[in-house]
Fold:
Amino acid sequence: MNYDLLFARLTAQFRSFDPRLYQIVSLGTLLIYGLLWLHFDVSIPQIALTFGATLLTQYACTRLYKLPVFDPLSAVVSALGLCIFLRTNEVLIVALAAVIAIASKFVIRWKKKHVFNPTNVALIIVIVSGLGWISPGQWGQVAWLGFLIACMGSLVVTRAARADVTLAFLGFYVGLLIARALWLGDPLTIPLHQIESGTLLIFSFFMITDPKTTPNSRSGRIAFAFLVALTALSVQFVLFRPNGPLWGLLICSPLVPLVDRMSPGLRYDWSRPSDGRMAPRLEVSLTS
Amino acid sequence: MTRPFVCALTFLTGLLLWSGSASAFCGFYVGKADTKLFNKASEVVIARHDDKTVITMANDFKGDVKEFALIVPVPTVLEKEQVHVGETAVLKHLADYSAPRLVEYFDENPCRRYMLMEEKTDALKSMPQSAISRERGRALGVTVEAQYQVGEYDILILSAKESAGLETWLTENGYRIPIGASSVLHSYLKQNLKFFVAKVNLGEQAKLGLTHLRPLQIAFESPRFMLPIRLGTVNADGPQELFIYFLTKQGRVETTNYRTVRLPEAQEIPLYVKDRFGDFYRDLFTQQVKRENERGVFVEYAWDMNWCDPCAANPLSVDELRSLGVFWQDSIGRGNKGMGLAQNVFLTRLHVRYDAAHFPEDLIFQETSDRANFQARYILRHPWTGPDDCAAATAYRQQLRERYEREAQTLATLTGWNIGEIRKAMNLGVRPVNDQKKWYERLWSD
Structure:
């Protein structure tokens, strides 16, 4: 048997998967870990309602905006994100958040791209209105968990070809935290503690990476990551408010069209995952 | 001359098991002797709304008051009107109201129907130089921003250009600074914090006829919602206990940079724990700290101030809450002559065991919109011991043995106590459950 051929076939099969499937598996695993080991305050009805509402809104908007096909994958990713982050006393609030998340993709658009990451915009609206909250410390500081998240997440971003935005964001964020510690004369255990946050890693690997809401060119994405990191840290250390990264992404997202204009690149298409270069390579699936 | 020791939120306090008398409001206590539960504990109350913050710092300082000094980083320069001396009794009331509790239930006669009675035990505690050389201060880059006397305390608000100067100034003025505090002072100075320094004015204390130190209160407006714990971990001998009570309008408070965890609650435990509830709770807490890798912040109580069920102590009155800094209750307080129950006050009680290794960063908080009630409550279920005989009673007596075993295992898991000793204390056999007949033996036994 020709192993080279088998390997080539497997690789091709792997590449032809929609990267969002990996995203769903990774986020799903994290949610289950949170539920079983960390006892997250999320009930099964709440999870069911989140999924139901996101998928229903996606379907309704698909019909309303006359899209050719109903694509549930992005909606499932948004639902998982909401289940992982959002906490509320009133279970119906999660349905509201789900509707906001999905509807924002269809309503707030600029040049055929949606402006905000759906989970991000829904979370901020719910927090600001006092209907729900996020517990940034819910993952604790167990190091291996962070490592696990990083590994699983990196798989996702490699397939989604947005590893650059994650690495750039984490690089700037960690670098600035260390710089702050050095300036204050703090021991490095403090920035290390700040980085040991599951919430930060999930944000970096699963939220900021959304190819639809990041700039099209690599240089644009790196500039964008810098802006998000700077805004996030300003929210934390100048305004003294929690959830810095979420605010950073929300505030910087409207700048993406501007960045795209200054540094143009090709728009991302989920069905044709590229490796993030300026010109996407055409990939032919051997299995089909 | 003895120099005051700078405590920095690390008062040496004892946490006492409080014993109370019968209360008509909602049940009665099971009395307990004074038992030291937690060593090296301090208590802080934070009332906060719209960035307006009132912090009450209580301590049960046991040494010579001449030795006592407190240094706390604060975000703004505090005027005399922003500093106040509170009442220890109110803080004790708050501590009693929110303490972990023991509840008693009594099994019904299985041959008849239910009778229920509640009893609760309160678990925890009560804790609770004038010749300044301005010239020298200027040379060291230290500015005395304000200096005044409030109650029995002499207060200084210091700002400084650099930590070395501040440290020298404090040392020269008779404060003993723990070794290694310099870098922490440096960090706080860079973050533009001022230092609130309090010492006891012995003359004034004698004049007021006080024998204990009353809690100090400071009021300020700042977006910073944090508690500086780093100075307290410098040179500390082992981990320290901190109880933080939050009085907020919207809902529960949690830490954003550490995991906030609810303690296990509503667990049924063996009856003999009634006399050892203090030990039980202390060991349970230690066990939970270990489970969270010594990095957890624990919720002991989160409740709307309007009520409680069961009540370890009555809810605080509007006047008491006002004295702790609840400023948003004005009109209601006047209307009810201060005796009514508070509305729009949510109490969160957090308990942290911290040291420098596991808590390198100051505690940072956020107020959530969570209004779900939570209490650390543990249950004693008294068996029915009547003589009646019926099929249900036989079945009940059989189930009792399984229940005792379950309670023993729960207790062992919660506290880390030896299961063999628990069974012995409960007068259980070694294998009480397994001595029943096998299922197939029962199947054909008739």
Observations:
- Chain A touches chain B at residues 38, 87-89, 130-133, 135-142, 183-187, 189-190, 192-194, 197, 239-242 (CB under 8 Å).
- Chain A has a mean pLDDT of 84.
